[in-house]
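We append the chain.
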Amino acid sequence: MARQPFSESAIPKFGDAPSAILVSGDVEFFVEEAASRARDALSAGGAEVLRFDDDAPVEAVSDALLNRSLFSDRRIVELDVSRLLGTDTPGRLVARAVEAWGRGGAAGRREAFKAARALLDALEISSGADPSEAAEAAARRARRKDDAPALAEILKELPEERAGGTAVLKAALRTLLERSENDGTVALLTAVAPPAGVDLLQEIAARGLVLEASGGKDAAGELRRLAAALARRREVVLEPAAIERLLVRTDRDPAVFSAELEKLLAWAGQGGRVRAADVEAQVEDEASEDLYGLLDAIGRRDAGDALARLERLFDGRDVRQGDRSLEKIEEIWPIQLLGLIAAEVRRMLLLRARIEEAGPGGFDTGMPFPTFEARVLPRLVAPVPPFGRSAFETSRGATSPYALYKAAQRASRFSSQELARALSRAADVDVSLKTSAPALETLSLWVGELIAGR
């Protein structure tokens, strides 16, 4: 049928559903959440629901997939097929297995075994191999050699699995997919981080339905929700500042955020606490830096955040402007950065002048974007005589309404005199940078004086 983003409207009614529906995504929490909603929708009005875990006998799973229910005319078979589809991230599987094993308990053991089986399948290592040798080989190939001893402990306890189990399940699913419509059985499948190009995944997309679950449009908000939910589940106090620091350090990448969050919660343990300082100490900071974050900090007149972000822009990491990667020219990066900040100060000065021209009621920092778009934007984009174009147009004649809205918010917190003074000093800063003045210190002083209004 199709591959599409997960939503309530994308879930078909049971009678219209294909024989197999796969819910996939990079984060297990969101995949499980979406699968639960899909199950509720498919079973509306009554259905037999059979849920199988990794330890279930393959014969039982195959029988449930290929045979009609004796008790209902509608059957939903739930199964995680991550192992069948494979994974591109054996390192994450090792970390997940070791972390779950360290938590202990029945749930921890089940999760560790699940990750270990997926790891062996991904690396094509026989589950019947010597546990120590298999663990050493897997840890080496996953580039996590230090985890080999813990992984060996898991493999020693790993329950034996019937040979050929993976092949049996793949064959059962392919037989199910051959049915153009479901004949009373729908396989509700889940998979975390399946690699693209896998034959079985393509077959499900072609003959069934693949729903891709993510955190939604508000990525940061959904990751905060994920953190809060997992912390409650583990009975760990996760301070809000720690979540915000983790968002920054992981660049809001859902998969990386989830993996680092798991490590932090395991480190804290039941009843523990995770603070922002713990995130600083335990999560390596390889995130790119968003130039807009610096501009927002300047707009808030937050010297601490602005100078910290400025320092990050000089420590070798990638720099972006929103979703767009910024091409840094290392030899002239300080001058390039000065130009970017000065261009924003110039735009803020123009906006400040227009705000003052409009008088009271023209613009305020709490104005919603739709109101700005309706009341303020038309004046900003109107052609200015005798030039016949707006002062806020790019060289290509385009304008960005939301960018102007954000710039207006920043500008409203400064006076025209403060912005004009900073723009005038930018010329002196440019000369200093071109005559071997220390780049970070020179720019930090300029930005600090702008924020302080001096």
